[in-house]
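User:
Can I borrow your eye for a moment on a structure tokenisation matter? Would you put together a sequence-and-structure record for a protein of your own picking? Please set it down just below, with no commentary around it:
AI:
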Amino acid sequence: MKIKFGSVEETIITRKEFPLSNARDILKKETISVLGYGVQGPGQSLNLKDNGFQVIVGQRKNSFSWDKALEDGWIEGKDLFTLEEASERGTIIMYLLSDAGQISFWPILRKYLTKGKSLYFSHGFGLTFCNQTKIYPSKNIDIFLVAPKGSGTSLRRLFKQGKGINSSYAIYQDYSGESLEKTLSIGIGIGSGYLFETNFKNEVYSDLVGERGTLMGAIQGILSAQYQILREKGHSPSESFNETVEELTQSLIPLISEKGMDWMYANCSTTAQRGALDWWKKFRDATLPIFKELYHEVHSGNEAKRIIESNSDINYRTKLKNELKDLKKSELWEVGSIIRNLRPEENTKK
């Protein structure tokens, strides 16, 4: 359907106009091979499997992710194979390895991308920055993406609740003339709430900016700064964390999700409303130059260069583990761990 957002019209696909039964019928002769069982692989493959599609998983043997796939019910030799065998068996190859993993495996995968197969991404990184990744597909295959706007964990969790994460979709190369139908079928099959149209470049630019900005990087920076100033001014850890994180995540974010920022403001005290309305533009003006710099770094390819160099480091996973450990051990998130365990529902689970 076409939906207008002010003066801008977008194409939106919902489950109502593209039902799961249509998706199953379109892909009934396809073998969907999911390469990678890390971040997006588990959620997308399990959702497709539960929705009745023919799915196999490809993963490096004797790895943590291989063991996880076995724990999730995939059976070696039946629907769990090495990356190479899964690449050969699949007619639609879902390339869900990490960006670094995609670069490393590409010289092998390209041999299996024979005429008429389909190559699927959930991120436009590899093709948008092909001058750095060296991922250059042949012209006789279909290439498309569906990018869930959330983690694979959330995709699976919401699917099991009968809900869904919204996803973008894009066609990069339509060799068969049937790429759109395949794309939408997989989008519905993985449990998308609805699908909105984009292109590979816009997907990766917005994704990289979002991850470094309000979704992950900026939010951690703002939370850390507020917690720090409260602690420096003599507020207790519990008070500082509750006013910085707990109230945000447990009370206010759900209200924003429900009906928007104005609704959240309307459900707070007049004192809170006045302060928020007086101060939000100051934060916008302070951070806008950072977002301009961030978008430039993404668009120029500089950020991609840093990502590839960092993730290709043989010691990357060890360094990452240490960085995440340092974050977990910071006072802010150690306090958070204690407070989460004090929530009534968390105590009930135990």
User: Anything to note?
Assistant: DSSP finds 18 helices and ten strands in the chain.
